[in-house]
Amino acid sequence: VQLQASGGGWVQAGGSLRLSCAASGRTFSRGWFRQAPGKEREFVASIRWIGGSTYYADSVKGRFTISRDNAKNTMYLQMNSLKPEDTAVYYCAAGSLSEIATMYESWGQGTQVTVSS
User: Fold this and answer.
1) What is the distance in angstroms between the CA of the first residue and the CA of the last residue of the chain?
2) CB contact at 8 A, 31 and 93
3) DSSP labels, the chain
4) 111 - beta bridge partners?
5) Phi then psi for 40, rounded to 5 degrees?
6) Shortest CA distance to 43 belongs to which of 62, 58, 29?
7) Per-residue pLDDT tens digits for 14-43
């Protein structure tokens, strides 16, 4: 499965962005990860395609919302109340619900999110 992430950009602290992740085929689950300069890739959120169960990292709970559109085969990440520490390259991935990046089978190319203070 090929994944295409989009929607990143620059925003001031407190602002919002919505990321999208389109896929070339069907997946049972997808997730979002992020990687800041000099840091390891970290789990953000994941979603089960059938049923829509969602999982979040503690750092984004209450601010980020993961969702999917079955008709468009697209996953979204609505990010509100953004903080400078949310600045990172955001990646979408498919094949797991895990917080562990190596559990995922496919990865998108990443989209940069920059939050200024």
Assistant:
1) 37
2) yes
3) --EEEE--EEEETT--EEEEEEESS--SEEEEEEE-TTS--EEEEEEETTT--EEE-TTTTTTEEEEEETTTTEEEEEE-S--GGG-EEEEEEES---S-GGG-SEE---EEEEEE-
4) 90
5) -75, 155
6) 58
7) 999 999 999 999 999 999 999 999 999 999
